[in-house]
Design goal:
With about 375 residues, the protein is mainly alpha-helical. It is built from 11 helices and no strands. Helix 6 runs antiparallel to helix 7, helix 7 runs antiparallel to helix 9 and helix 7 packs antiparallel against helix 11. The radius of gyration is 30 Å and the shape is elongated.
Length: about 375
């Protein structure tokens, strides 16, 4: 009776052979799936950053193979070249500021020989209006660079999102992928509304108030301008705090949930009679390969964000530095209102730089948290 239930030795050998064949077929299918993941389509991502001449797919391949082929050196060379070009372009701004300040000082000195002070006031306002136009043009140019760069970041993250969620799920981070997908969509919408549609227009108003305040010589708009500055700073801090806090909270739960699922999968594969060892080894290999691809895509995303922001950050930083240098140079000879106007524009450009760095930091933190949330087994 027992022999009838178990079967003959020949039937046991046949069953074991079928199990072994099924296990090998499953292993081959898993490996083929992993290979397909390595041939992901990054055309949408490359299209979103085509102006930067950064090849996302090639970067992923270089990172997977363990070499960068001079990637970081080329990025550094590009950054240094941008610094040199920007200083060459912004020399005109510095020369204009110094020239206007010198003209104002000369005009004031000449007008001082007249008994009436009306001529000196007229000359000052003429020079101030010229400086107003110069500073306004410089600031609007920097604001346009910041707005365009933030828009490019949003476009890049929208293109990166499907690919990154795919590799997160393939490496066993299904929960992390779902959280990253939902969180990034919310972050993109929040950045679009707060950074582009709210803070940038507020900074335009902020500079206009400061320049009007300096022209009048009385601080009747300083409190209003200070309120706008505080609102901008607070919004940037709150956004960073929300991203870090949300990522930290999910980082305590998501890795454990995904690790439990992956462990259960590997253990279930290893429990199959006859081929369990093979399937368990293949499962770990496939998950390890997917984790490597996940890390490569995440690292390439971080590098791409840095590449997108490198030149614009340099441009705004150089503009801020040139204005600060200009205010320091003209201070001994120019009217204090002219010095205050240049200094105020430099401060406004500094806030633009904060917005740009915050936008980059938000997505860098999001990508890094998602990568660290998926742990290998």
């Amino acid at each position: 009776m027992l022999a009838a239930v178990i079967g003959s030795p020949g039937e046991e050998a046949l069953a074991a052979e079928k199990f072994l064949k099924a296990g090998v077929d499953s292993a081959a299918a898993a490996l083929n799936t992993a290979e397909e993941e390595w041939e992901m389509d990054y055309s949408d991502i490359d299209a979103s950053i085509e102006e930067t001449e950064f090849d996302f797919g090639e970067t992923v391949e270089d990172l997977v193979s363990g070499g960068d082929d001079g990637l970081f050196r080329s990025i550094l060379d590009q950054l240094l070249s941008a610094v040199r070009e920007e200083f060459q372009e912004k020399k005109v701004l510095l020369q204009s500021v110094i020239g206007i300040a010198a003209a104002s000082a000369v005009f004031t000195l000449i007008a001082g020989s007249f008994q009436s002070g009306q001529a000196a006031q007229t000359g000052f306002f003429i020079c101030y209006l010229a400086l107003f136009g110069t500073l306004g043009t410089a600031f609007l140019t920097a604001a346009g660079v910041v707005g365009e760069t933030v828009s490019k970041l949003l476009e890049f993250m929208e293109a990166l999102l499907p690919a990154y969620v795919t590799v997160l799920a393939a490496s066993g981070g299904t929960t992390a992928g779902a959280v990253f997908y939902q969180g990034t969509l919310v972050l993109i919408s929040l950045a679009d509304v707060v950074l582009i549609k709210l803070l940038l227009p507020l900074l335009n108003l902020y500079l206009a108030l400061l320049l009007a305040n300096q022209m009048s010589g009385e601080a009747f708009l300083s409190k209003f301008a200070g309120l706008i500055r505080d609102i901008v700073t607070l919004c940037l801090k709150v956004m960073l705090g929300l991203v870090v806090g949300f990522g930290g909270l999910k980082g305590m739960i998501v890795p454990a949930a995904d690790a439990l699922k992956k462990s259960a999968l590997v253990k279930a594969a290893g429990a199959i009679p006859g081929v369990g060892g093979i399937l368990e080894g293949v499962s770990q290999t496939v998950l390890g390969a997917a984790a490597l691809l996940k890390n490569a895509v995440g690292a390439a995303g971080v590098i791409a964000i840095c590449v997108i922001c490198a030149v614009p950050v340099t441009q705004v930083l150089v503009s801020t530095a040139i204005l600060k240098i200009g205010s320091a140079v003209i201070e001994p000879v120019a009217d204090k209102r002219l010095v205050g106007a240049v200094s105020s524009c430099a401060g406004a450009c500094g806030l633009l730089l904060n917005i740009l760095l915050t936008a980059a930091g938000l997505f860098l933190i999001a990508v890094a948290i998602a990568a660290m949330a998926v742990r290998t087994i």
